[in-house]
């Protein structure tokens, strides 16, 4: 099964001709910037909340046993904190490949900590992509993460790196931290 979004993202021409564009990262893009950028700043977006509801068949799981990674779910009034990167459009090719398992580029207002806002883009895996796994209890998500692993490494590394990066940003994410706590409990039981 594939949810490959490369071709769809290549058709997104909203930022064609721009010298640079802000990219908002809320998952692995916060802690793993494996692409060139001109500048980066803590930032947030509104009316979206971070959830471990997307399947990962290519990075933190396999086609037979997908892992769980974050996507954004619409929620009026919610604020999702992350990291914004000012990139040049030639970086899209790399990002489209990295985010190809269900994530589509979406234009969105990005709010910086100094009060300024700019339209930029974010990669979102919407509920209609075939890799979307949907809601589960935070305990079940922790169990799922505990048993998953893929070409980019154990699913638990993704969770732990994200939780650490959010702490470094001074941001509390109830969902991410609850799953991290459940995973630590599971590991304590099995060690
Ligand atoms: C993101 O980090 O902004 C998208 C989801 C991911 O790659 O983990």
TrEMBL record:
Keywords: Lyase, Transferase. CDD domains: GGCT_like (cd06661). This is glutathione-specific gamma-glutamylcyclotransferase. The keyword Transferase applies. GO terms for molecular function: glutathione specific gamma-glutamylcyclotransferase activity; transferase activity. Pfam families: ChaC. GO terms for cellular component: cytoplasm. The keyword Ion transport does not apply. It comes from the Bacteria. Its EC number is 4.3.2.7. One of its GO terms (biological process) is glutathione catabolic process. It comes from Rugamonas brunnea.
């Amino acid at each position: 099964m594939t949810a490959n979004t490369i071709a769809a993202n290549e058709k997104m021409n909203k930022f064609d001709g721009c010298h640079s564009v802000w990219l908002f990262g809320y998952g692995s893009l916060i802690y793993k910037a494996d692409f060139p950028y001109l500048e980066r700043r803590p930032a947030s977006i509104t009316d979206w909340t971070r959830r471990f509801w997307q399947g990962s068949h290519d990075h933190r799981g396999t086609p037979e046993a997908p892992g769980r990674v974050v996507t954004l779910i619409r929620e009026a009034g919610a604020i999702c904190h992350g990291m914004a990167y000012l990139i040049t459009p030639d970086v899209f090719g790399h990002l489209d490949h990295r985010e190809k398992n269900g994530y589509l580029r979406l234009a969105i207002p990005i709010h910086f900590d100094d009060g300024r806002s700019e339209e930029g883009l974010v990669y979102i895996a919407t509920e209609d992509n075939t890799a979307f796994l949907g809601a589960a209890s935070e305990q079940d998500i922790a169990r799922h993460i505990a048993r998953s692993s893929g070409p980019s490494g154990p699913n638990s590394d993704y969770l732990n790196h994200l939780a650490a990066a959010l702490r470094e940003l001074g941001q509390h994410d109830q969902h991410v931290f609850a799953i991290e706590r459940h995973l630590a409990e599971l590991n304590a039981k099995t060690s």
